[in-house]
Amino acid sequence: MNVTRIWTQGRPHTNEYVMEYTISYGTNGQDYADYKESGGDKMMFRGNSDGDTVHKNEFEVPIIAQWIRINPTRWRDRISLRVELFGCEYDAYDMYFNGSSLLKYDLYREPIAALRETIRFRFKTTTPNGVVLYSRGTQGDYLALQLRDNRMLLNINLGFNEVTSLSVGSLLDDNIWHDVVISRNRRDILFSVDRVVVQDKIKGEFQILNLNTGFYIGGVPNIQEGLVVVQNYTGCIENLYFNSTNLMYEVKEALQYGESYKYQKVNTLWTCPEPQIVPVTFKSHQAHARLKGYEGMASLNSSFAFRTYEDNGLMLYHAFSGSGYVAVSFVYWKTSV
Fold first, then answer.
1. Which of 3, 79, 257, 261 has its CA 20 to 30 A from that of 230?
2. Could you tell me which residues come within 8 angstroms of residue 180 by beta carbon, excluding any fewer than 6 positions away?
3. Residue 127 to residues 64, 178, 235, 281, Cα–Cα distance (Å)
4. Where does residue 291 rank: exposed (0-12), middle (13-18), buried (19+ CB within 10 A)?
5. Would you say the pTM of this structure is higher than 0.70?
6. Domain residues of the chain, as ranges?
7. E strands, 10-138, where?
8. Dihedral in degrees, nearest 10, Cα atoms 209, 210, 211, 213
């Protein structure tokens, strides 16, 4: 569902109401993402001032989700909340890429030469690196969007032979849907992941982006200028819009009505399968698994399910590169962080 606004009330004829809350959302009822401000912090929504008045909040960027979680942070007397959500149906056109896949849109017949454009889409993945979007022109222009170490990296060049790089997001390989927006107006560029925004001025004097070879989604057939990762993307991409055109929908229509010459579709699926769950059994008190860590991250996110007959045990441990650590354990069947 595409959720656009939320109305709240407290308990009628009382002083029991929620004054402030945050919102998280998801698609499977288990994994949730926080609705964030443009600076990256959780957005705090203003609630009610009495039990009867309706307070209305609108989402500047709609929430696309099946599950909505409201997390009260301040309230009067007791947490009492009546809620109504407003929105509309959401049509999802998904495509899955397996690391050897790509989708190519042929720009030889319809080259792009524009002062402004907007690209927006959703993605989810469990892989920290991969080429997401790529296109270039014969005059040296290119646009390269890629996942690198769990962050989204955009390299863009308007033919000035000097690249402009923007990076946003963290821990994006969590298998949760993330929203991406790239909006350019001449040399002004806005890059957003999950409403966290970075803006910059593209280097050089040129203002037009010229792309006239191919527009690649999910990977490239060989190494290209502007790319810093070598592997193709693994995961799902949903409703990729170039300006007002949903390319995923266009591809499906073209293949159905005999205009497939515009597109080259390699090893992709019209679905978004969930990653296979691989259970691991630790057979002794000394058994453990050591995974590669990440440096320079502002946050850490981990989730897992477990079962055991033991009454004590250390389940997760990570030492920070500076000082301190985080440990998840259970002692007499109670979990502790």
1. 261
2. 119, 120, 121, 122, 123, 145, 152, 192, 193
3. 22, 14, 8, 23
4. exposed
5. yes
6. 2-88, 94-269, 277-337
7. 17-26, 33-34, 45-46, 55-64, 67-76, 82-88, 94-106, 112-114, 116-124, 130-136
8. -160
Would you identify the CATH topology of the domain 94-269? Jelly Rolls (2.60.120)
Query: In CATH, which superfamily holds the domain spanning 2-88?
Result: Galactose-binding domain-like (2.60.120.260)
What three-state secondary structure class fits 261?
Answer: helix
Please give the Cα distance from 114 to 207 (Å, whole number): 8
Indicate the SS3 state at residue 19.
Answer: strand
C-alpha 212/C-alpha 46 separation (Å) is 48
Distance in angstroms (rounded) separating the CA atoms of residues 299 and 292: 16
Q: What is the pLDDT along the chain (337 residues), one digit of tens a residue?
A: 899 999 999 999 999 999 999 999 988 888 888 998 888 889 999 999 999 999 999 998 889 999 999 999 999 999 999 999 999 999 999 999 999 999 999 898 889 999 999 999 999 999 999 999 999 999 899 999 999 999 999 999 998 888 999 999 988 998 999 999 999 999 999 999 998 999 999 999 899 999 999 999 999 999 899 999 989 999 999 999 999 999 999 998 888 887 778 889 999 999 998 877 778 888 888 888 888 776 666 667 677 778 888 888 898 888 887 788 889 988 887 888 8
First to last CA, the chain: 35
| Residues linked to residue 221 through DSSP beta bridges, in sequence order | none
- List residues bridging with 232 in a β-sheet: 131
b/e map 312-323, b = 16+ CB within 10 Å: eeeeeeeeeeee
The domains spanning 2-88 and 94-269 adopt the same CATH topology? yes
